[in-house]
Amino acid sequence: MKRVFHIVTHFDVGGAERVALGIARSGNPDIEYHVVEVVRAHGAFTATFISELRQAGIRYHRAHIPELHFHYLFERLAALCFPLWFAPVFARWKPDVVHCHTEVPDMAVRAFFCLFPQLKRRCRIVRTIHNTRLWTGLGRTGRFVERLFVASKANVAISQAVKESYERLYGPAGPVVYNGVEAAAQRPYPGIRPGRANVLFAGRLEEQKGVSKMVEVVEALRDDPRYFFHIIGSGSLEGLVRSRLGGLPNAEVRPPVAGLASYMGSFQWLLMPSEFEGFGLLCVEAALAGLPAVVNDCPGLRETLPADWPLKARGNSTADYLHFFRDVMPTADRAGLAATAADFARRNFGMERMRGAYEAIYSA
Question: What is the pTM of this model?
Answer without folding.
Answer: 0.83
